[in-house]
Structure formats: C-alpha cells, structure tokens
Design goal:
The protein is of the alpha/beta class and 408 residues long. It folds into two domains: 104 residues, Urease, subunit C, domain 1; 290 residues, TIM Barrel, CATH 3.20.20. The protein has 16 helices and 17 strands. Helix 5 packs across helix 6 and helix 6 packs across helix 7. The longest helix has 18 residues. The protein is globular. It starts with a strand and ends with a strand. It catalyses: 4-imidazolone-5-propanoate + H2O = N-formimidoyl-L-glutamate. This is Imidazolonepropionase. Its EC number is 3.5.2.7.
Length: 408
C-alpha cells in the first residue's frame, strides 16, 4: 500500500512490441494484495480493503513498485574472476587480443574445471544475492565454462542447486558450445561431435537444461557447426538460444531465425536484413549493452530499428567474469536509454515482461497481474523513470513469491 506508482506491466498475454513497450499500466497511489505467494489483486487501496481480513501490511512509503527484473542472459557459474584482463583492457588491449593470448573464456574454463561443485555453488550463491539485492528475481543461467562432459554437467547441477538454495529463480541453458577448448585447438568439428553425441544426451537425460545456446562467431563456431548443434538440441526437446552477430555479421542471426530460436543474443553487428528475418520468425532479440560498455566498444545494437520493426526487445546483463561483470539491470536499463535511445518505459518492459516471455515464463512472472507469482521490488524512487536516470543507484526491497528476500 501507499505506493507512488504500482508499475504493473499489465497487458496482452504475450511479449510487447512497438508502442506497447511504452504502455506500463501504472496505478498511481496503488496497492497490491498477495495471497499464498500469488498476486490476488492490483488497484486502489479502497478496492482491496473489503477483500482482506487482518492483512500483513507492507507500506511502500511513497516509493514505486515494479515486477522483479528478469535477466534473460547470464553466465552465473564460474570460478575466479578476470580483473587482470580488465586492467589489460584499460591499458589498450582488446577483448579478442587477450583471448588470443590464452585469456578470455579459456582462462575461466581452466579455473572452473579445477573448482569443486561446492566451491562453484558458494560463489554462485554469492552472485545470486547480488542479483536479488538489485531487484532481479529470475535469471537465465548458462553453462559454458566447463567444456568437458563432466564439467558442463557440474555447472548445470550448480545452477539447479542455486535455484533450490536461494530465492533466485534460475532457468538453465546448456552452452557447451561456448568456446573451442584448448585441447581441441584445430579440431572444432571433433569438439562439436562431443557436444552432440555425449554432452547433449546426458544433459537431456538428467533434465538439467531447458535451452541450448551456442556462440556462433568468427574464430569460434561456424554456421554449419551451429546448425548441427542446435538441430541436435531440438531433437532433445531443448529450446534454442544463440549468441550471434557480436563481433561480425555472417549469417548467425539468420540461422537463428531459420531454426526458430526463442532468442538471438548480442546482435551488435546486425543489419536491416537480419532484423527483418528475426521479425518474420518471431525471434526475440536479447540486447546486452553492458557487455559493449565493459569491453570498451562503441558498437551498440540497433535497438530503435528493432523496436520500430516490431521486435519484442529484451534487455539482459550478460553477467560474466570477462566481458560484463555486472548483475545490475538498472545499469543495463540506463545504457539502453543513453546509448541505444530506448525510452525508460521501453527499457523497463524489456527488463521484465518481454524477458519473461523470452524464457517461456510470461504467464507466471514479469508483470503484476492477478494470478501471477508475487515477485516484485519496492524501489527508492517516486517515478519509474528514475530507475535508469539514477544509474548505479541501489535501494530496493525485494520480494519473491510474496516473501521479502533482500533489501538494499
């Protein structure tokens, strides 16, 4: 009760496109009724009072209430960090130069392989607390720093464990084709065979993932290899996601459209033709402006062109130890507004209801509507536009299934 704005994101039961992304369903001075972890009603307090008897009151104190953020692209589980590489980038080296010297993803792979499941769980649970403190209640979490059968399974088991031991909801994605491991240098096809013939069957057998992803990029996995992996993933009833067009555009986003992927992520280099292909196929673009910022690039995705083309744009952190070490959806929203010229309303939609739909969770989370899970945040703000405006600021009380789980 006593909220300056209850930003409901109520609307059609699908991802929002075009002008719909600016329609937030704000209830000024509103209230929300929660029963048994679900939203019972949203509206004015006077409408709620006859429906309640001896309720527990949460006073929003003139602040705003939004759905919990839904972060649709993270690499939650890894060992160590790459602060040393951050320093090298500050001195002028590029992300790809560092990777060519044995750093980058492969350096994290070496550390993650050496870590136990318990050690990885402890660090991932720490990061889960960071996400929750920033108002994020659901994340998509990828494997990809193991690159052996057992290490990939280890990471996926940790993702499942974090979803059980913390209030953070985790949607698991298998990303065994994240990089060509060092022991397979010059043998990418052999590694792809391992992913298809040994990793995917085990992942499916243990029901450790809902989606399969691949990093399709020059010097990593080719279009042909991506087609093989994703086609095999479909045979195992996994949904498809794809890292595409991050550094070069050579048809990866078009392949995602052809295969009917749920999302196509990064898209810094995508042009008009790719945008149209994604639109025709109904693929949601997941844009990751914090990764552009963190590696010192100026090449942001063409968010405005995507919105104007009718794509249901999603924003996510790309939280990872190398190219985007931030769990903050508010920082991502701010970058989306200042660097990609999205409006604050579009950014909030992309960080909540559109992200939820990209994970197949739009019926359950992402908006404040009767019947949905009561995942929400009370922010230290009087207007939703302050969320990207005060970039890097914190201050929120976070609730998952109606229970307070974090406060900052």
């Amino acid at each position: 009760m006593n909220a300056a704005q209850v930003v409901t994101l109520a609307g059609p039961a699908r991802a929002r496109t075009g002008g719909e992304m600016r329609e937030l369903g704000i209830v000024g001075g509103g209230a929300m009724l929660v029963r048994d972890g679900r939203i019972a009603a949203v509206g004015m307090l006077a409408e709620m009072e006859p429906q309640t008897e001896h309720p527990e009151i949460v006073d929003a104190g003139g602040r705003i209430v939004t759905p919990g953020f839904v972060d649709a692209h993270t690499h939650l589980v890894f060992a160590g960090n790459r602060a040393d590489e951050f320093e090298k980038r500050c001195a002028g080296m590029t992300y790809r130069q560092i990777a060519a010297e044995g750093g980058g993803i492969c350096s994290t792979v070496r550390r993650t392989r050496a870590a136990s499941e318990a050690e990885l769980a402890a660090s991932a649970e720490r990061y889960a607390r960071w996400f929750l403190a920033g108002g994020t209640t659901t994340v998509e979490a990828k494997s990809g720093y193991g690159l052996t059968v057992e290490d990939e399974l280890k990471i996926l088991r940790v993702i499942r464990r974090v979803g059980e031991t913390t209030p953070l909801r985790c949607v698991p994605t298998f990303l065994g084709a994240h990089e060509i491991p060092e022991e397979y240098a010059g043998q990418a096809d052999e590694y792809v065979r391992l992913v298809i013939e040994e990793m995917l069957p085990r992942v499916a057998e243990e029901k450790l993932a809902e989606y399969c992803d691949i990093f399709c990029e020059t010097g990593v996995f080719t279009l042909g290899q991506a087609r093989r992996v994703l086609t095999a993933a479909k045979r195992h009833a996994l949904g498809l996601r794809m890292h595409a067009d991050q550094f070069t555009a050579f048809g990866a986003s078009d392949l995602a459209a052809e295969l009917g992927a749920a999302t196509c992520d990064h898209l810094e280099q995508s042009g008009e033709q790719s945008i149209e292909a994604l639109k025709r196929a109904g693929v949601q673009p997941v844009l990751l402006p914090a990764s552009v910022y963190a590696i010192g690039s100026q090449k942001y995705p063409a968010a405005r062109a995507m919105i104007e083309a009718g794509l249901a744009v999603v924003l996510a952190t790309d939280f990872n130890p190398g190219s985007s070490p931030t769990p903050s959806m508010r920082i991502v929203m701010s970058l989306a507004c200042t660097q990609m010229k999205m409006t604050p309303a579009e950014a909030l939609t992309a960080a909540t209801i559109n992200a939820a739909h990209s994970l197949g969770r739009g019926h359950e989370i992402g908006s404040l509507e009767a019947g949905k899970t009561a995942d929400f945040a009370i922010h230290e703000a009087e207007d939703y536009r302050e969320l990207p405006y005060f970039f890097g600021a914190g201050g929120c009380a976070v609730f998952a299934a109606g229970v307070r789980v974090a406060e900052s």
